[in-house]
Specification:
The chain is mainly β and about 325 residues long. About 0% of the residues lie in helices and about 55% in strands.
Length: about 325
């Protein structure tokens, strides 16, 4: 009845008053006119789409795996295998008619396919997210001087060791005039940068309670291979095309190997720069001072009978809850 791209399979359908929209596995949304479908005769030439939206990120096609209509029944949200979500209008773009588009005999030519390339509403990393953190950070100018403003970053770590940074969106909310449910409109989530400080799954993450004089923040990572890595993070704003573009610059300032198994616990003290570090593969818990991140040292360690599952700081006191249902101070 309708022709999709080569080897493409339909993933989801949506129906408007004038079109049937088919999102397919090749990373495209196809708008087929309902009148042609309703009057289709089996065995005739397959119906071609009037409009085609292709889902791409940085020139790479994003294979769609799911799609739904938004609550307003005006847009389609398509989720892709590469981690992106696209939002496209259910309606076909109206193009101005061109009276000169006739063939040599004066008959109207076949309508040209309308092609659109929507920008992703949000882009997440592909693969498993094992941990995540949120941190406020001061913005720097391109000359690395303070810009006098703050932003909030969201960062997650994947099973490949990749860190993905993006800027948290502004949420514009309003309450209905008669009360009731708050209506919230999310802006697009802006992916800023990725980094690979170590090619080992990130199994734990902690934002350190320290910052440089220029506002740099530090993120401590625990890895599957027992290493602990400290990453320095700077948010730098550049002037681009009469606007501003925020980029994230990262560098590894410290790495230390503590365990033979995965680092599963990083618990920072909010009143100082101490961090408790543990692993389900080892009953030893290390306490490190991150006050001087470039020379982070082990201050103390404690070995419990059972593996520590949780660390709790109370001022300068550390309490450990073990898998044997014990609390050690």
């Amino acid at each position: 009845c309708a022709a999709l791209g080569t080897s493409a399979k339909a993933v989801a359908f949506a129906v408007s008053t004038s079109h049937v929209v088919v999102v397919d596995s090749s990373g495209a949304a196809n708008w087929f006119p309902r009148l042609s479908i309703d009057g289709f005769v089996p065995g005739s030439v397959p119906i071609k789409p009037e409009q085609l939206a292709t889902f791409t990120v940085q020139g790479r096609s994003q294979s769609a795996v799911s799609a739904v209509m938004d609550p307003t029944v005006r847009y389609i949200l398509a989720g892709c295998r590469g981690g992106s979500i696209f939002k496209v209008s259910l309606d076909v773009i109206e193009c101005e008619a061109n009276e000169e588009e006739d063939d040599d005999e004066g008959n109207p030519s076949e309508e040209a396919l309308i092609e659109v390339s929507p920008a992703p509403l949000a882009t997440f990393q592909s693969g498993a997210t094992l941990c995540a953190a949120c941190l406020p950070i001061g913005v720097l100018k391109s000359d690395l001087t303070k810009a006098g403003k703050m932003t909030t970053l969201y960062v997650n770590g994947s099973h490949t060791g990749l860190l993905t940074f993006w800027e948290l969106p502004t949420i514009a909310g309003e309450r209905r005039s008669g009360g009731g449910i708050r209506e919230v409109r999310l802006n697009a989530i802006s992916v800023l940068s990725t980094a690979l400080p170590r090619s080992s799954p990130v199994t734990a993450m902690e934002v350190l309670n320290v910052a440089s004089t220029m506002g740099s923040r530090f993120l401590m990572l625990g890895h599957l291979d027992g290493w602990v890595t400290v990453v320095k993070i700077d948010a730098v704003e550049h002037n681009v095309n009469d606007g501003h573009q925020l980029t994230i610059e990262t560098s590894v300032v410290q790495s230390v190997h503590l365990f033979q198994g995965a680092v599963t616990m990083l618990e920072g003290n909010t009143s100082n720069a101490y961090v408790a570090i543990g692993s389900f593969s080892d009953p030893t818990v290390y306490v490190m001072d991150a006050g001087v991140v470039a020379s982070m040292t082990v201050m103390a360690f404690v070995t419990t009978e059972a593996v520590a599952a949780k660390a709790i700081w109370e001022a300068a006191n550390l309490f450990l809850v073990t898998t044997g249902n014990e609390m050690v101070m």
